[in-house]
C-alpha cells in the first residue's frame, strides 16, 4: 500500500508548501471531472493524503504510525547465520544464539532447516536471519 507521501509524490520531510503545491498539481491533473479514464480511487487517495498531511497534528500522528509500520516491516537484522552457527542444545534439540543485548534467539529444531527463517530476540527488537541448510 502506498503511503500518503508516495501518493503525493513527496518526500517524507516535504514542507507544507511543497505538499500543498503537489496536491494542487495532482488535483488539476487527476480530478474525476477532468479525466474520464482515471480510476476514482486515485483522486480519493490524493484527497485523503492531503487532508491528513495538511494538518500538523494529523501529520504527526501519521508519521509516527508510518515509522512504526516501517520498523515492523523492516526489522533490523543482527546477523545472517546458518544453522551450524547456532548453539545446539543436545537435550531439547533446540537452537539458540546470543544477541548483543544479552538476550537469546531461540528456535525449535522443527522450525528450521526447510526454509529461511527469521527469529526475534527475546530481549530487544533485533532479529536474526537463519539461512536454510540444504544438506539433508
Ligand atoms: Zn537482543
From TrEMBL:
Stored SMART domains: DnaJ
One Pfam family matching this protein: Zn_ribbon_CSL
Ranges that cross the membrane: none
Domain named J: residues: 3-66
UniProt keyword terms in alphabetical order: Iron, Metal-binding, Zinc
Domain DPH-type MB: 77-133
CDD domains cross-referenced by the UniProt entry: DnaJ
InterPro entries per record: DnaJ_domain, DPH_MB_dom, DPH_MB_sf, J_dom_sf
GO MF entries: ATPase activator activity; ferrous iron binding
Family indicated by similarity: Belongs to the DPH4 family.
Protein name: J domain-containing protein
